[in-house]
Amino acid sequence: MQEFVDANREHKSYHYTDVPFQVATYGAGAVGTDGNDVVQILTQAIRVLQSSDGAINSTQNPHKFTKRQALLLIAHLVGDIHQPLHVGTPYVDDDDDFGVPSKADLKSHRFEETQGGNFLLIGKIKFHSYWDGNVVKNAMRNADVSDVKEYGTSLAARCGEVTQAVGDATSCPQSWANDTLNVFRQAHKAVKITGSREEVRDHHGGFDHYEWPISLPPKYSKTSTTLGEAQLVKAGCRFGTLLLTVWP
Q1: Among 20, 135, 188, 190, which has the highest number of CB atoms less than 10 A from its own CB?
Q2: CA dist., res. 226 & res. 230, Å (int)
Q3: The domain spanning residue 78 has which CATH number?
């Protein structure tokens, strides 16, 4: 693991892409995307698994992933790419409204990032954390299970609900990202900023970033739990189908 981290200094960015959630599709090179985002890393890792000996050219595998590393990355990142705030993100303009920025808007600070909703607060809870944790806990509570393995087994039984991967496996990450963007647009309906931005200072007392308070619409817990559980089902079943596609 230490060897991997040493060779992949930007590994933290492998887990997400920051596409404005209002945009319908992921586009490489567009706002919020780069060569180290979750779509690109998953695509590279799939290519490595597809190769007969893992030895593919540097254009296809610029990070020089081994087959073992590629498999571990896929197992983790397929989950990430199905978490709505790991793909789509809200951006906030200088009037404290949600919108779609250009790269120039971000550079001039006419728009600010929210880092996958980490800078949007429901009370003291980060919007991103709500989707990472609260949604899953609510889903398990509704299913009346406390054991993760038992819950996973119940979700696996729903694989018939999921559109299975077909054709070129390397097209899957972008397709999944587009689907997750659509889910987040549903999840973001009627979410509102309820106050002005506040500065957050870094450890040395200087400006770090802004935060905004938000409110969730009525019955959002039910809505988010239903969407979140469906994403868990998709992630697990698509992961299995992907491996069967790569290794028939």
Answers
A1: 135
A2: 6
A3: 1.10.575
